[in-house]
Amino acid sequence: MGPPISRNLHRTAKKTPSKAPAKTPKTKAPVSETGPTSSLPVDLLQLLLNIFRNAFPERLSTDITPLLQEVKGHLYNRDFSTAFGKEEYLETYAVRWSPSRTLCYLEILYNLQDELKPSKSESQEGEDANWNIVGLGGGAGAEIVALGGLLKLFATTNEDEHTAKMNIAAIDIADWANVIKQLHSGIVTKPPLSKYASAAAQSANNALTSPSSFAVTFHQHDVLNLPPETLARLVENAHLITLLFTLNELYTSSLSLTQKFLLNLTTALAPGTHLLVVDSPGSYSTVSLNDTDKKYPMQWLLDHTLLQPPGSAKADAAPRWEKLQEEESKWFRLPGGLRYPIELENMRYQLHLYRRCG
Ligand SMILES: C[S@@+](CC[C@H](N)C(=O)[O-])C[C@H]1O[C@@H](n2cnc3c(N)ncnc32)[C@H](O)[C@@H]1O
């Protein structure tokens, strides 16, 4: 495989937090590939990992291996209804896979903030500035904890002028309600401290953000079978829609239903809404035509659906989305010094950012 290709279609200034706390590596990060590691403040990344650790102590205080093997087995067999079918499996999935993704998503969102943050006029409703985000397939909590981290990062780097409040709706086919409740609680309440903690540690112990700044709702739906009017209600007023490590699952489940779903989503969304898609690089879906199977890259199918309007042969057919950024393969590498009871992973991903046209 050749070197990663990165194609910026639009200005996306990569930022380094201006007031990043000093990095003090304590343990060796599980670096599986060489390359630059994340420049986000390690202290903040650690706080996000602690949210997972504190939310599900039962999973992380005992040997998680047997449950992990069961979940992995069901995922391998693509038996998602069993893999996501009981609470202990959901918690196991969340503590194993969501923490690394959370840190990766925080970096992605932070780097895209200039594009994604709604302008004051878009977000102002009465006295409150709102940023409305819908996470499709967002049940396992990675995007939610990443957004909590983003709010904290805005607060510590004084970049929160337009972001007084985040409203997040997570929509998922599996029942992640309790996992999300625990993670939300970990974001908006002070983390537990030892009763022997010093007065200084106690006074420095703060929640990531407040409940009034960070609202999360969960909606259990199969997005591929949502009536268009229900989908429209769920994404009403959204500034950002995310499909993180979910789109390829949808394509694999049904290509035609996924295309229909993307078209319904397009119809439901207002001009200016952003759609962020992140997935494994090199994801393919098989399309059967005239008894022959042909594999298409996920991003080709996505561009085909979003960028080519129906009847696009007509010269006057207006595009419904514009593509702002594309990364075919990019690494997120963990910095050193992070502590977590089980393995954390560097991640490789593809990224596609679109904006709904007027
Ligand atoms: C690989 S997980 C990714 C979870 C999370 N977005 C993340 O990045 O960590 C895919 C998620 O999509 C959800 N999902 C799969 N098919 C779905 C569908 N038809 N409707 C809604 N959610 C779906 C799964 O339940 C699962 O939570």
Automatic annotation (TrEMBL):
Q: Which InterPro entries match?
A: Methyltransf_34, SAM-dependent_MTases_sf
| Stretches assigned to coiled coil | none
Q: Which SUPFAM superfamilies match?
A: S-adenosyl-L-methionine-dependent methyltransferases
Q: Give the residue ranges for region: Disordered.
A: 1-37
UniProt biased composition (Low complexity): 18-30
Q: Which Pfam families does the UniProt record give?
A: Methyltransf_34
Q: What are the Basic residues biased-composition ranges? A: 8-17
Name under which the protein is recorded = 25S rRNA (Uridine(2843)-N(3))-methyltransferase
Q: Which organism is it from?
A: Paraphaeosphaeria minitans
